[in-house]
Write a structure and sequence with these properties.
mainly alpha, Methane Monooxygenase Hydroxylase, Chain G, domain 1, 3 helices, 0% strand
Length: 87
């Protein structure tokens, strides 16, 4: 238990940030799973739409310091190659 008031506030702030980050990461993973299922079904249009959503979520994660910019860049490239392979 924190002994100092500012430490107690930081505990609450960190918990809120943790929940927010977890939510955004989970949403990204869900989109990635749906992209993989669209690729397996050879559904090009759906895969393109999901890819745009993934790119947007990765950019938001970089902006809010959830993901590193190189991680986002690598993921975007990887998923773009996958989508282009079924086109």
């Amino acid at each position: 238990m924190p002994q100092i008031e500012s430490q107690a506030k930081r505990v609450l702030t960190n918990r809120k940030a943790q929940l927010r980050n977890r939510s955004q990461k989970s949403a990204l993973r869900t989109e990635i799973r749906s992209l993989h299922s669209a690729i397996e079904a050879n559904d090009v249009e759906t895969a393109q739409q999901i890819l745009n959503t993934i790119n947007s979520k990765l950019d938001q994660g970089v902006t809010s310091n959830i993901h590193h910019k190189n991680f986002a860049s690598r993921q975007k490239s990887t998923y773009a190659k996958l989508v282009n392979s079924i086109s």
